[in-house]
Amino acid sequence: MIPLVEGRRGSERVFAPDGAPLCAAGLAMPRLFVYQHRTGLVAHEREKCGCPLLHPRPTGEVCPIAGKHFARGGCTTTIATGRGARI
């Protein structure tokens, strides 16, 4: 059995039915890019996801919860792309 490592964010992450991470406002965050993370023990693929109101194109809407990061490009999150990362 492999123990759950909650990390800095703890177990607060929530995902849309399609697997996209949800921001604090409950919006599905689109993938911005994918890269190889090589600084850990095992290299693995990760993805960076960003604010759906600003990426891939700005919608003109403002953050419904007035998030503090919105003015600086919106919220972002980084997560491993493997299926186990979304458990």
Question: Would you give an account of this structure?
Answer:
The two termini are 14 Å apart. The chain has strands spanning 31-37, 44-50, 76-80. It has 87 residues and is mainly β. Strands 1-2-3 form a 3-stranded antiparallel β-sheet, with no helix packed on it. Helix content is 0%, strand content 22%. A hairpin with a 6-residue loop joins strand 1 (31-37) and strand 2. The chain contains no helices and 3 strands. The model has no long low-confidence stretch (mean pLDDT 84).
Q: In a few lines, what is going on in this structure?
A:
The chain is mainly beta.
H/E topology pattern:
EEE
- End-to-end C-alpha gap: 14 Å
Strand order of the largest sheet: 1-2-3
Low-confidence stretches: none
What's the alpha carbon Rg, rounded to whole Å?
A: 14 Å
- Strand content is 15-25%
Key structural traits:
87 residues; mainly beta; 3-stranded antiparallel β-sheet
Fold topology:
Layout: E1 31-37, E2 44-50, E3 76-80
Antiparallel strand pairs: 1-2, 2-3
